[in-house]
Design brief:
This protein is an alpha+beta fold. It folds into 3 domains: about 1-235, 2-Layer Sandwich (Aldehyde Oxidoreductase, domain 4), CATH 3.30.365; about 260-330 and about 390-465, 2-Layer Sandwich (Aldehyde Oxidoreductase, domain 4); about 335-380 and about 475-744, 2-Layer Sandwich (Aldehyde Oxidoreductase, domain 4). The strands form 7 sheets. A 7-stranded mixed sheet has the order 10-11-8-18-15-16-17. Strands 13-21-20-19-14 form a 5-stranded mixed sheet, with helices on both faces. Strands 22, 23, 24, 27 and 28 form a 5-stranded mixed sheet that branches. The chain is globular.
Length: about 750
């Protein structure tokens, strides 16, 4: 790693060689276990990879130095969510480390750091009933599975609830046991007579003590326990406390490096032009005016894109505008109206796939009070603050790439395939992400950067303009849903939902295929209708759509039953966690209190990614239709809270993201082209119209759930339910401007 592209905090990464990952046996956090030799070692690694010879990597995720400093490697990208700090807290807690000596580093982009804890978490959960003798086989299996399925994925609110809960805790506990074994052997005392605390091992009877750093080299000689004893949560001292995020100091002092900050000696800048119409190709390029501009280097025609290099991005971007590009072909007939027409046609005549069925829905719909409603949501862009970018340096049969990505390992493999190289010949240099929300899990901005670099003889930093980014996103799908329901004797007797599934990219195991309330007769089915434009994972993915559909319709059902919307939800919640969230929400939001004229409160609750979130939105509407969101109250049961301050920040940020889409968000198509190009026509909530917020966590000892996404889905239906009270009009089609309203 070049001195120009790394910070001091990451300087030790360059010392680790591939040989240091291929020694001895044992695993924590997934991979090869004791006695297996079919895969690289993932736990008990000798210090022969450290240049100074004095550093010890006890296991996959933790390194200890003789001066008693502890470094936690985390296999996720840091994009503002603070996951690295939370994961370090979980490891340090079980290790009994002194928190003041702990730092974090993003894990190297190699197969040895494949995040197999994601696979373990998805498939077998905590594994409390799995015998210890089976752990070696399971760890090896998950290591292989994860290499193909998850790599080093950051998304789906998986860091804390899967990597942390299933990997970091075990890593910390196993490291502590190894340190205790080392001290016991050195002092010739039973392990049971020793205690570990604040990065020290102590033998109280003799008064002897030693730091973790002093014991680390000897500890590394021991085979780890693959199923170590974990602490009781009542004894926690680090987990559950509001620790300052470890990534913040360099973000405050300016030393943090994002992808767009990278500079490499001899580097040129490149701006890109992508087809204005979907699937169009370059027919001709008149580059004379662009090449005549000072500072411009080359024009690269890739057939499906054109790039211009220059000595600065500003120069390159102005030169792109001077190009005369003729495009041909493409989906010129594509429009928002045609997409909707296809959805209607598919819902009426497509193949239905049952996702949840129980009881006699048709019979129940014929009794009591029944109602129907059609809901839809538009395409949405990710709109990350840092536009897409990628820096590539090629030298012979090797490549170096600097990119902020949500799956560095898969990005490396995609780049290697594009280059025709072995993945081992591609070195990825992790950097911070200026927002991701799912967009930086795609490969297009990486492979495009690589393709441009192949046409040059210098390193290149490729930057997408905001307009290029907005019009060539992988959008949240536009979706249509038709629902029916019936109420009888104050309760829901039937619920049916027929909806379009546009293939967002989220695995079915993490998608909302059920109705979260107790209904005896249910029928939920999808029609698969792949989107004609690229779609992908968008923060909270399908829960943002289904949350809006179901929670809005829940208010309609409550009204049909003549019931209070909040109490109606409580009465239909047999799940104790959901019920507790709703009851707390009523108390914290002032539900039922008299409000000023022109103001109302709406509620919604969505259970996603292992976390239940209930929200109340206090909104107002002026006589001219101007909407003001005064306050948002969030009640969250995310299981055990790892870092309260970071958790609150995740929730409040999610609320802003969700409200933005409800108030403004819409990507539209006309003539095969995206009409929205920048923030003036794809607006964001600004400080002046951001609401007051309060966040309340349910005290829980449940396993931790996700937090990066679960607070996004409920805020939209909570808002639209409030607006119905004020206007008498149901908002079934987003954004709210389609209902004649505007943001005050």
């Amino acid at each position: 790693m070049s001195d120009t592209t790394e910070t001091k905090k990451r300087s030790t990464l360059g010392k680790w060689t591939r040989r240091s990952f291929l020694a001895t046996a044992g695993v924590v956090g997934g991979g090869l276990a004791l006695g297996l030799t079919l895969s690289p070692n993932r736990l008990k690694m000798a210090a022969d990879g450290a240049a100074t010879g004095d550093e010890v990597l006890l296991n996959t995720w933790v390194k200890v130095t003789p001066d008693n400093k502890i470094t936690v490697f985390f296999p996720h990208s840091e994009m503002g969510q603070g996951a690295g700090t939370g994961l370090a807290q979980m490891l340090a807690e079980e290790m009994e480390a002194d928190w003041d000596t702990v730092s974090i580093v993003q894990a190297p982009v190699t197969e040895e750091y494949t995040n197999s804890d994601l696979g373990r978490g998805y498939i077998v959960g905590e594994g409390a009933n799995i015998p210890a003798f089976m752990y070696p086989m399971l760890d090896f299996a998950f290591f292989q599975i994860a290499g193909n399925l998850v790599g080093q994925m950051t998304g789906g609110s998986t860091a804390i609830r899967l990597t942390g809960h299933h990997g970091m805790r075990r890593a910390g506990a196993a490291a502590k046991e190894m340190l205790l074994q080392a001290a016991a052997a050195d002092w010739d005392v039973p392990v049971a007579s020793l205690t570990a605390r604040d990065s020290m091992v102590t033998h109280e009877a003799s008064g002897r003590s030693a730091t973790f750093g002093a014991l680390a080299a000897q500890a590394a000689e021991y085979s780890p326990n693959l199923k170590p004893a974990l602490k009781d949560s009542a004894a926690y001292r680090i987990v559950g406390t509001a620790k300052p995020r470890l990534d913040l100091p360099e973000k405050v002092n300016g030393t943090a490096q994002f992808g767009i900050d990278v500079t490499v000696p001899g580097m040129v800048y490149a701006a890109v032009a992508l087809p204005p119409i979907r699937d169009a190709r370059v027919a001709a390029v008149d580059d004379s005016a662009a090449l005549a501009r000072p500072g411009v280097g080359q024009v690269v025609n890739l057939g499906d894109a054109v790039a211009v290099t220059a000595d600065s991005y500003w120069t390159a971007s102005r030169a792109i505008e001077a190009l005369g590009i003729t495009w041909s072909g493409g989906q010129t007939e594509l429009s928002s109206a045609s997409v909707r027409a296809q959805h209607v046609s598919d819902l009426e005549g497509g193949d239905l796939e049952e996702m949840d069925a129980e009881g006699d829905v048709a019979g129940a719909l014929g009794q009591g009070t029944s109602l129907k409603a059609e809901y839809e949501v538009p395409y949405l862009a990710h709109a990350t603050m840092e536009p897409m970018n990628c820096t590539v340096s090629l030298s012979g049969d090797r490549a170096d790439i600097w990119v902020g990505h949500q799956n560095q390992l898969f990005a490396r493999n995609a780049a290697a395939e594009t280059l025709g190289m072995e993945p081992a010949n591609v070195t990825m240099h992790p950097v911070y992400l200026g927002g991701g929300f799912g967009r930086r899990g795609d490969m297009d901005f990486v492979t495009l950067g690589v393709r441009i670099a192949q046409s040059l003889d210098t390193p290149v930093k490729v930057i997408w303009s905001r307009e290029t980014d907005m019009t060539n996103d992988t959008y949240r799908p536009a979706i249509l849903a038709r629902m029916e329901g019936a109420v009888q004797n104050g309760r829901i007797s039937a619920f049916s939902n027929r909806y379009i599934d546009a293939r967002s990219g989220m695995p079915d195991s993490e998608r909302p295929f059920d109705f979260q309330y107790d209904v005896p007769n249910r029928d939920i089915a999808r029609v698969i209708c792949p989107s004609p434009i690229p779609v992908g994972t968008w923060r909270a993915v399908d829960f943002t759509q289904m949350g809006f559909f179901h929670e809005s319709f829940m208010d309609e059902l409550a009204e049909a039953a003549g019931a209070d919307p909040l109490q109606f939800r409580i009465d239909h919640s047999g799940n104790p966690r959901r019920r507790a969230v709703l009851e707390r929400l009523g108390a914290e939001s002032g539900w039922g209190e008299t409000l000023p004229e022109g103001q109302a409160i709406g509620v919604a609750m969505v259970d996603s990614f292992g976390t239940v979130v209930g929200q109340a939105v206090h909104a107002g509407v002026s006589p001219d239709g101007g909407v003001t969101v005064h306050r948002v109250v969030s009640v969250v049961d995310c299981g055990r809270v790892i870092n309260p301050s970071a958790a609150e920040a995740q929730v409040t940020g999610s609320v802003i993201y969700g409200l933005t889409s409800a108030l403004y968000g819409e990507i539209t198509l006309e003539g095969g082209a995206i009409r929205q190009t920048n923030f003036p026509d794809y607006e964001m909530i600004r400080l002046e119209n951001a609401p007051e917020q309060s966040v309340h966590f349910i005290d829980s000892d449940e396993a931790p759930g996700g937090l990066g996404e679960p607070a996004v889905p409920p805020v939209t239906p909570a808002l639209t339910n409030a607006l119905y009270k004020l206007t008498g009009n149901r908002i079934r089609n987003l954004p709210i401007t389609k209902s004649g309203l505007h943001v005050a």
